[in-house]
Amino acid sequence: MKKAICLAFALLSLGSVQAAQDPQAVFNRSCGMCHNGQLPTAPKKGDAAAWTPRLAAGMDTLVKHVTEGFNAMPARGLCMDCSAEDYKAVITWMSK
């Protein structure tokens, strides 16, 4: 019975997955070198005009681009320990 309760708790907690890492820390460590303006094709943090068309493609598409690499962006965006939730949090933080 205890195993069933533990399993149920584990499954329920999976539904509330959140970013494990601070978006600003991830940005500073992995994203900033390109998204601070050094790479002209990478949208800068807070540049609404650059982020609007990208956000219109949908968060799933953006996370896929980060995970697989897209144009000049390397696979995983140089954050090898980021989860999909971490990527979503960083994208949201960068686009504001």
Question: Layout of helices and strands, plus pairs?
Answer:
Layout: H1 2-14, H2 23-35, H3 48-56, H4 59-68, H5 84-94
Helix pairs in contact: 2-5, 4-5
Write up this protein.
With 96 residues, this protein is mostly helical. It has five helices and no strands. The chain has helices spanning 2-14, 23-35, 48-56, 59-68, 84-94. Helix 2 packs across helix 5 and helix 4 (59-68) packs across helix 5.
What is the second-level CATH architecture? Orthogonal Bundle
So what's the CATH class? Mainly Alpha
- Counted up, domains total 1
**What's the total helix number?**
5
The CATH topology: Cytochrome Bc1 Complex, Chain D, domain 2
Which term fits the overall shape?
globular
Q: Number of DSSP strands? A: 0
Helix content: 55-70%
Question: Which blocks of ≥5 consecutive residues have pLDDT under 50?
Answer: 3-16
Question: How far is the N terminus from the C terminus?
Answer: 47 Å
Secondary-structure-based class equals mainly alpha
Q: How are helices and strands ordered from N to C?
A: HHHHH
Strand content: under 5%
In round numbers, the mean pLDDT is 86
What gyration radius follows from the Cα positions, in whole Å? 16 Å
The H-level CATH homologous superfamily, spelled out, is: Cytochrome c-like domain
Largest sheet: none
What is the multimeric organization of the chains shown?
Answer: single chain
